Sequence to fold (339 residues):
Amino acid sequence: MSSATRVVIAAVGPYALHGTPMVQACLKTGTHYCDLTGEAQWHRYVIDTFHDEATKKGVLIVPSTGFDAVPSDIGAFVVASEIRKRFGEPCSSVKAYFSGVAGASGGTLASVFNIFSMPSKVLLELQEPFYLNPTETRQIRNSRVSPVERDQLLPAYDSDVQSWTNKWIMAAYNTLIVRRSVALFEELPSDNPVYAKDFKYNEYMLASNIITAIAVTVGLFLFGIMVILSPTRWLIKKFLPEPGQGPSAARRKTHWFRYTFKGYTADKKNSVTAEIRGADPGYDDTAKMISETALCMLQDSEEILRQRKGRGGVLTPATCCGLRLAERINAAEVSVQIK
Fold:
């Protein structure tokens, strides 16, 4: 399959169980690759095993090009780029706020269950805020994590948006992608970097009031306990969608999402706000995101590799496609707007 095409979209998960052979095949045939994984432990394995080979061969390997984690990675990059353009200095920090209604797919849930069946050592490593950073910077950055880079656990009032927030379950993975992007951009020195050296990023879920924030936090905590414990994990799997199952077309029409990104200069005197919003994130808009990523890799691969000085690698949506992807998904009705 990989020898018959130039770009492969891999959509078969859990990737920790089914994804590796496709990556290996693409490296063997020099074919670019993108997928939908949200499995940090497999993503780390792909980086450790294939990044150097992909870099030398000029092969673009881009995991996580659906709702995990295109809005996060591209939203942060759009805001940081706008700050550089307007104020002539790099972006110091970005905070992202999610709101929306969505439904989980059986494949996504299977990936979650597979992660929580991992050894405790792996689960502890997954708590590292810079888990997906290049090997050279991973330990350094994990040794000096600021409070804002820690995942939110309890409800809090955020004066920047004048709203209560609670833990956003996808933040634990999405933040890893954005931080990897920042580190990969640093490997290609620029006279006008969009990200500051000490750039900070995190994500939160908006709550309508403190009661909602507390209720969501408690619900996530209880679900997490049930997933961690093997007897209850086995039980709840009986009531959730199987791989290949998910929300109906009629149900998906009621789904929507909105990400609001607020970026700041170092002195906090200047800021830029952007918004990415769309319809059903898990299926309809994820299909748009991964398709537009693949088309970008297909049609702009020569320019991408030229900018990267011929180097491929295990990249991120922003470090591979950059603002081109923002333009593409906006044209595909996943709105990307500077507010």
